[in-house]
Amino acid sequence: MCGYLGNVIDSPLTKALMLILGMDDLVPQLRNNPGTGPAASIDIIVDDQGPLVRRAIWWLLLEHHEGNYRPSKYTSFNTRSDKLDQKRGAGYVPYRKSRCIVPATYFIEGTGPKGRRVYHRIEPNEQSFALGGLYRTWINRKTGEITYSCSVVTLPPHPTSTWQQIHPKSTPLMLPADPETVRRWLDPQFDRVEAFGQLLTPKFHQDVQCVPIDRPGNQRQIGKPASISAG
User: Fold this and answer.
1) pLDDT at residue 191 in the model
2) Which of 16, 97, 158, 215 might form a disulfide with 163, Cβ 3.0–4.6 angstroms?
3) Measured between alpha carbons, how far is 14 from 201 in angstroms, rounded to an integer?
4) What's 218's DSSP letter?
């Protein structure tokens, strides 16, 4: 699962992604995020009569508590792709009506038992990742305040032997840096989700570096990076 990510806004990787997507005017609206985990506030990009930056809780399902919305007891910072077509699933309606992208200059994956887990920071070579996500809108009926929540879509593990050693359970959905693909993904009126079938096959759209680190909160490099080529 994708459980830790960062989006460093002064990185040339971020600027390159936003320029390619024709959204470079949104860069000043993005907050600098050196690294954060689930249930934190992150920036997402949605389409509301044009691309906009929203602050969202990285946890799709929220519950109302003492006048505020907070993450529910059900883990939902990721949404598995094999559950997107389950009508009772949390991602069924958002997949059809409220998709988003999560810009990230890196994400972290880990494998192994708790206490002996091995972590890698996954870094793109050309431009930031445009992670495919879902979002929901929650309205406080008393105050009218709007809260956004989101999740990252996760796919089956990438078949390369390198990735199998890094995270053999899943791969986050990384959208290609293609303006038309991203426009369609963000379009709330586009509900023919069968058109996204090819996107739900695990794929790296650019070469990446997989840097072994001691833990997400420190990210001290502890070994030689491994490379995974686009494909």
Assistant:
1) 94
2) 158
3) 24
4) T
